[in-house]
Design goal:
The protein is of the alpha+beta class. The chain is 18% helix and 22% strand.
Length: 166
């Protein structure tokens, strides 16, 4: 065996020695103390002028509920229950939806937009949806009840639509 080391082997041995020395320094915790910056002098905080909130009289705020902000025509909302209708003659039951938690009736007005009302809720005219089945909806107002049935259009029977053959 040759006891002499070649120059490349001496270089690798030197690198290994330096890495071992570096590892020893790291593991010995030399230089682990944090180097803190000197404390900055405390500058005087500018004092904020705190002002009392502006108070407004209730009469000054009346415009907020008389002309709602998000209403397209900026007119007051219609009052619910002011105009009591004695019957539901201007309404037609157009649909019924009964699912797990949702029970709802869809109504068509003779002269207005369609309405939807859930079980237990009231219509704008005060009638409350009291009972709902797949065929009819029962409404109540002041002890009176009125039932609207679902109108199902029927097709003519096959026998009446055929003419006898000559």
């Amino acid at each position: 065996m040759n006891s002499r080391l070649r120059p490349l082997e001496w270089g690798l041995l030197g690198v290994a020695g330096l890495l071992g020395l570096l590892m020893a320094v790291i593991l010995s915790s030399i230089g682990d103390e944090p180097q803190w910056l000197p404390a900055a002098p405390l500058a005087a905080q500018p004092s904020a002028n705190v002002q009392a909130p502006v108070t407004a009289a209730l009469a000054d705020l009346a415009g907020t509920w008389q002309a709602p902000l998000f209403s397209p025509d900026r007119s007051p909302d219609r009052a619910v229950g002011k105009a009591q209708v004695t019957s539901l003659s201007n309404l037609t039951l157009s649909g019924i939806m009964i699912t797990g938690n949702l029970q709802m009736a869809m109504l068509k007005q003779a002269d207005g937009p369609p309405l939807t009302v859930r079980l237990g809720q009231s219509l704008p005219n005060g009638w409350r949806l009291e009972h709902l089945t797949p065929q009819y909806a029962r409404f109540a107002l002041d002890g009176r009840t009125q039932t609207l049935s679902l109108y199902g259009k029927r097709l003519p029977s096959i026998s009446s639509s055929r003419e006898p053959l000559p």
